C-alpha cells in the first residue's frame, strides 16, 4: 500500500495511505506534484502542512478515514443545489464526531477543511456554525465568532436602513 | 445514554423545526409535527399527546438554551490569526440556508458579511409594490436615490478600498443595491399606479431590477407608452419576467410605435413639466399616443438624452448596469449621433437583452387574447429568451388561444429555447411545435394535451426532440386516441414524468414491446408516474414488466401516485429492475405494499408516503404483530417488550440507510377523519427511534 507522510505545523507526522490522502483535494495535488518532481517512483511523499496543528490534522484524518468510501463530492458545488449535499453527508457518526468539540476547535476544523479541500467536512462544520447563527442578534454573532465590525462612517446605519425593506408592512 | 443521543438528534433537526416555528403558532406546530417519539417521552407521559408535547418542549429547550460556548482557553485563540468566517467561500457555505431575518442580522456584522449576506438577500427577497401603498414606493425610491447619490459622490474620493471585491460579479467601488426582485401588483381594477412615482422609481432604481412580476387587471390602465418607459427602457437589465396579467387595452395593438424616451437620472430635471402634463391624460386613444410619441421622438433626438443599450447579444459586462457612468452614456450618444434618425437604431434600445426567462399567465383573467402585433413587439424585445412558460385556457378542442403566443416567436428564439412549458396544447399547436426547429430544447412539459391531440403528432414531436431532450412531462389523459404513443429511444432523457389521470380503455401500447428502460432511456434517473388505475391493475405491471430481465442502473428516483391499488408484487419487480433506487415517493398504497417496501427496498435514503384512511399502520411500520401492538397500547408498558422478540415482520427499521422520512396525510382526511390514520407512540418507539441514520423526519399525522 502506497503511503504518504503528512506533517502538522507542530511537527507531528501521520502516516496514511495515499488512497485516503487523495480524498483531500489539496493533498492529492501535493502527492501528484511530488510524483512529478521525484525521480524515484517508489519514494514516499512527505507533505508539510504549516497551517494546521496536530490535534486538528488528526481530526481531519479521522473524518476522512470514516468517510473513505463515500462518493467524492464536487468541490465547487453550485450554491443553488439545495440542501442535498449537507444532508447526505451527515451521519450519526458525524454528529458524535462534532458533539464534544468547542467552537474554537470547530473553527479550526473549518479552516483546515477549507485549506485541505475536504468538501464533506467543510459542509458539516459550516452547518454547525449556521445553526449557531440562527436567531442571534448581531452582537451575539460578533462575540461568539470573534468578529469585529469594520464599518466606517454610517455604513452600518445604511445597511440597517436597507434591512428595513425586508420587513413587509 | 439513550437520552443523550436523543437530545443530540433533537438538536440536529432543530433547524428544521425552527423554520416551521416561524410559520405557525407553537402549539399548532406541536400538534402537527413530531420529531421523534423516544423512550423518555413515552415513559414520562401517559398519553401520546403529552408525549408529543413533552418531546417538543425538550427539543425547544435544547434549541433555545443551546448557548454558544465561548471558551476562553488557549484552544479557541488559535484561529485568531485567520478567522475562517472571514473567508468568503467558507462564509458563503455557512450563510447558504439562513432565513431573510438571520441574513439581515448577518449583514450588520462586518463588511465582508454584508457583501455575502447581501448577495443572498438580493436573491431571496422580493419587494411587492401595489398602487394602494404608493407611499412605500415613493419612500423606497427616495431612500435608494439618497444611497446612490452618496455613493456616487464618495466614489471619486476613495474608489479603491471600498468593498473588497470577493465576487467577480460585483463591480468594485460601487454601491451595491440590495434588492433586484420586484413585483408590481395592481390588484384592484381602476386604481392606477401614480405615474410620476413609478417613473421616478424606474429611472432611479430600474437598472438594478433583475426579476419582475407584473399584474395589471384587464380594466386597469397602463398605456403602451408607460409600459415601454417604465418596464422596458426603465428596467433594461431584467433577466426574468412574469406577466400575470396586462390590461386588455395595452395588449390589443403594437406598443413599440411609441418612441418614448426616458431621461437618465442625472439629466432628468429638464423634463418635469412634461411629466405633469402626461399625468393629466389618464385615458387616451391611439391618435393621442401617436401624436405625443411623435413629439417626444423629435425632442429626444434633438436632446440625445436616451439610454440606448448596445445591441450586442453577448454582452455580459456588468458595467452596463451603471448608467451613471458617463462614458457608457457618451459612447451610446456617439453611436446615436452617427445614425440619429434611423428607425432601426431606435428599435435597438427597446430590448431586454439580458432576459432569458419569460412566463405568461393568462389563466387568471382570460378574456381578451393578446394581439399578434403586441406579441410580435413583445418577443422582439427578448432576443436572448431561453426559458418560456405559458398558461392559457383553450377551449376543449382547440388551441387558438395559445397559438399566437408561439407563432410570434422569432426563428432564432425557437432555435435557442432550452425549456418550454406550453400549458394547454391542441393538435395544431403540437404539429407546429414539431416543425418549429426547437433544436436546443432540453425541457418540455406538456401538462394538458386536449382531446384533439393525436398520438402521431406527439410521436413526431418526440422524434424531432429525441436528440436533445433531458426532461419530459406528458399528460396523456385526454388525448384523442388515448392509447398509444410509441416513444423513440431518447438517449439524453434524465427525467420522465407521465400523467394518466383517466383510465385508458384500450390496451396500453406506450412502449412496444414491454419497456426495457436501459435501452429506451439509457440515462434515465427519475421516473414520475401519476396514474389512475381504478379498473386496470395490469397498468402497474405495464410500467414495471416482470419478465424481460431488463435492469436499469441509472434510475435513482421513483415517484408514483396511484389509487385503489393493493397488490404489492410490483415492489419486488421495482427492486429488481432499478437496483440503485435511493429515493421513493409513494402516494396511495396498501399495507402489503408498505411491508414490501421495507422488505425489498432497503437501500432507500429518502422515503415519502401518505397515510390512507382506514388502515392501521403500526404493525407495518414497526414489524410488531398487530395483536402485540394492541397489548402494548393497553398496558402502556413499552419497556417490557424487547423489540427483537416481538418483531416478526419487515419494518421501517429495515431501511438502514434512510436519512429522510416523510409521512403525510391528505388534507381532506385530516379534516373529516381527524382520528383516521395516525402515527402513534408505538411506531415512534419501535420504529422511528431505531433508524439511526435519520436526519429529517416530517410527520403530518400524529394522534393527539
From TrEMBL, chain A:
The pathway entry for this protein reads as:
Protein modification; protein ubiquitination
- Where are the coiled-coil regions? none
Per UniProt, the keywords (alphabetical) are: Ubl conjugation pathway
Task: Give the Pfam families listed for this entry.
Answer: Skp1, Skp1_POZ
Please indicate which superkingdom the organism of origin belongs to.
Eukaryota
Every copy of the SKP1 component dimerisation domain together lies at 119-166
Span of domain SKP1 component POZ: 4-69
Q: Can you tell me which family this protein belongs to? A: Belongs to the SKP1 family.
**Name the record gives this protein:** S-phase kinase-associated protein 1
From TrEMBL, chain B:
Domain annotation F-box: ranges: 86-125
Biased composition, Polar residues: where in the chain?
A: 266-282
Q: Kindly state which keywords UniProt assigns to this record, in alphabetical order.
A: Coiled coil
| Compositional bias annotation for Low complexity | 287-305
Region entry Disordered, spans: 154-174, 266-305
Q: Which InterPro entries match?
A: F-box-like_dom_sf, F-box_dom
Q: Which residues form a coiled coil?
A: 455-482
Query: Which protein are we looking at?
Result: F-box domain-containing protein
| Source species | Orchesella dallaii
Amino acid at each position: 500500500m502506497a503511503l504518504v507522510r503528512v506533517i502538522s505545523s507542530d511537527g507531528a507526522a501521520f502516516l496514511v495511505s495515499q488512497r485516503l490522502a487523495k480524498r483531500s483535494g489539496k493533498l492529492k495535488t501535493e502527492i501528484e506534484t511530488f510524483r512529478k518532481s521525484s525521480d524515484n517512483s517508489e519514494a514516499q511523499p512527505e507533505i508539510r502542512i504549516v497551517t494546521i496543528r496536530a490535534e486538528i490534522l488528526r481530526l481531519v484524518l479521522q473524518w476522512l478515514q470514516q468517510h473513505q468510501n463515500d462518493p467524492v463530492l464536487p468541490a465547487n458545488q453550485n450554491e443553488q443545489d439545495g440542501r442535498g449535499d449537507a444532508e447526505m453527508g451527515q451521519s450519526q457518526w458525524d454528529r458524535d464526531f462534532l458533539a464534544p468539540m468547542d467552537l474554537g476547535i470547530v473553527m479550526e476544523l473549518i479552516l483546515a477543511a477549507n485549506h485541505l479541500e475536504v468538501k464533506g467536512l467543510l459542509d458539516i462544520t459550516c452547518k454547525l456554525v449556521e445553526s449557531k447563527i440562527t436567531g442571534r442578534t448581531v452582537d451575539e454573532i460578533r462575540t461568539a465568532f470573534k468578529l469585529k465590525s469594520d464599518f466606517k462612517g454610517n455604513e452600518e446605519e445604511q445597511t440597517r436602513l436597507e434591512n428595513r425593506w425586508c420587513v413587509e408592512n | 445514554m439513550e437520552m443523550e443521543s436523543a437530545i443530540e438528534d433533537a438538536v440536529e433537526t432543530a433547524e428544521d423545526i425552527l423554520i416551521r416555528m416561524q410559520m405557525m403558532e407553537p402549539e399548532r406546530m406541536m400538534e402537527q409535527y413530531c420529531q421523534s417519539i423516544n423512550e423518555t417521552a413515552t415513559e414520562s407521559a401517559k398519553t401520546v399527546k403529552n408525549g408529543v408535547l413533552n418531546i417538543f418542549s425538550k427539543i425547544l429547550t435544547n434549541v433555545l438554551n443551546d448557548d454558544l460556548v465561548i471558551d476562553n482557553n488557549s484552544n479557541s485563540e488559535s484561529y485568531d490569526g485567520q478567522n475562517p468566517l472571514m473567508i468568503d467561500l467558507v462564509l458563503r457555505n455557512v450563510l447558504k440556508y439562513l432565513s431573510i431575518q438571520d441574513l439581515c442580522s448577518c449583514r450588520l456584522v462586518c463588511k465582508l458579511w454584508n457583501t455575502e449576506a447581501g448577495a443572498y438577500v438580493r436573491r431571496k427577497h422580493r419587494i411587492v409594490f401595489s398602487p394602494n401603498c404608493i407611499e412605500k414606493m415613493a419612500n423606497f425610491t427616495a431612500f435608494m436615490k439618497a444611497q446612490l447619490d452618496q455613493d456616487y459622490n464618495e466614489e471619486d474620493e476613495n474608489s479603491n478600498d471600498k468593498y473588497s471585491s470577493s465576487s467577480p460579479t460585483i463591480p468594485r467601488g460601487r454601491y451595491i443595491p440590495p434588492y433586484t426582485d420586484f413585483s408590481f401588483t395592481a390588484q384592484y381594477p381602476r386604481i392606477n399606479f401614480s405615474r410620476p412615482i413609478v417613473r421616478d422609481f424606474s429611472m432611479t432604481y430600474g437598472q438594478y431590477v433583475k426579476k419582475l412580476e407584473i399584474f395589471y387587471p384587464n380594466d386597469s390602465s397602463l398605456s403602451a407608452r408607460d409600459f415601454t418607459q417604465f418596464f422596458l427602457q426603465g428596467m433594461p437589465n431584467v433577466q426574468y419576467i412574469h406577466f400575470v396579467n396586462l390590461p386588455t387595452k395595452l395588449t390589443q395593438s403594437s406598443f413599440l410605435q411609441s418612441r418614448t424616451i426616458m431621461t437618465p437620472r442625472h439629466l432628468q430635471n429638464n423634463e418635469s413639466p412634461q411629466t405633469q402634463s402626461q399625468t393629466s391624460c389618464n385615458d387616451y386613444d391611439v391618435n393621442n399616443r401617436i401624436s405625443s410619441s411623435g413629439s417626444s421622438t423629435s425632442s429626444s433626438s434633438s436632446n440625445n438624452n436616451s439610454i440606448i443599450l448596445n445591441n450586442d447579444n453577448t454582452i455580459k459586462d456588468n458595467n452596463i448596469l451603471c448608467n451613471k457612468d458617463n462614458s457608457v452614456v457618451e459612447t451610446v450618444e456617439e453611436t446615436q449621433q452617427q445614425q440619429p434618425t434611423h428607425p432601426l437604431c431606435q428599435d435597438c434600445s427597446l430590448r431586454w437583452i439580458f432576459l432569458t426567462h419569460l412566463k405568461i399567465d393568462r389563466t387568471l383573467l382570460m378574456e381578451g387574447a393578446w394581439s399578434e402585433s403586441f406579441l410580435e413587439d413583445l418577443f422582439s424585445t427578448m432576443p436572448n429568451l431561453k426559458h418560456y412558460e405559458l398558461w392559457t385556457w383553450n377551449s376543449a378542442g382547440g388551441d387558438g388561444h395559445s397559438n399566437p403566443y408561439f407563432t410570434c416567436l422569432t426563428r432564432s428564439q425557437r432555435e435557442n429555447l432550452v425549456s418550454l412549458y406550453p400549458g394547454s396544447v391542441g393538435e395544431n399547436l403540437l404539429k407546429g411545435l414539431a416543425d418549429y426547429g426547437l433544436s436546443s430544447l432540453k425541457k418540455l412539459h406538456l401538462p394538458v394535451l386536449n382531446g384533439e391531440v393525436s398520438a402521431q403528432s406527439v410521436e413526431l414531436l418526440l422524434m424531432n426532440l429525441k436528440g436533445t431532450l433531458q426532461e419530459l412531462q406528458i399528460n396523456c389523459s385526454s388525448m384523442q386516441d388515448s392509447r398509444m404513443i410509441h416513444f423513440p429511444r431518447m438517449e439524453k432523457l434524465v427525467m420522465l414524468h407521465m400523467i394518466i389521470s383517466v383510465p385508458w380503455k384500450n390496451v396500453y401500447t406506450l412502449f412496444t414491446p414491454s419497456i426495457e428502460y436501459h435501452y429506451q432511456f439509457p440515462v434515465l434517473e427519475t421516473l414520475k408516474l401519476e396514474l389512475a388505475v381504478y379498473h386496470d391493475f395490469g397498468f402497474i405491471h405495464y410500467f414495471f414488466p416482470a419478465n424481460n430481465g431488463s435492469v436499469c442502473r441509472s434510475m435513482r428516483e421513483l415517484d408514483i401516485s396511484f389509487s385503489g391499488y393493493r397488490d404489492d408484487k410490483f415492489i419486488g419487480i421495482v427492486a429488481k429492475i432499478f437496483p440503485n433506487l435511493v429515493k421513493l415517493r409513494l402516494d396511495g398504497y396498501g399495507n402489503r405494499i408498505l411491508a414490501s417496501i421495507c422488505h425489498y427496498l432497503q437501500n432507500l435514503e429518502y422515503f415519502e408516503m401518505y397515510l390512507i384512511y382506514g388502515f392501521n399502520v403500526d404493525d407495518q411500520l414497526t414489524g410488531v404483530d398487530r395483536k402485540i401492538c394492541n397489548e402494548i397500547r393497553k398496558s402502556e408498558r413499552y419497556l417490557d417488550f424487547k423489540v427483537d422478540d416481538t418483531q416478526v415482520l419487515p419494518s421501517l427499521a429495515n431501511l438502514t440507510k434512510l436519512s429522510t422520512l416523510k409521512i403525510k396525510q391528505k388534507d381532506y382526511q385530516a379534516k373529516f377523519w381527524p382520528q383516521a390514520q395516525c402515527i402513534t407512540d408505538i411506531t415512534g418507539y419501535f420504529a422511528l427511534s431505531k433508524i439511526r441514520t435519520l436526519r429529517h423526519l416530517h410527520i403530518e399525522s400524529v394522534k393527539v
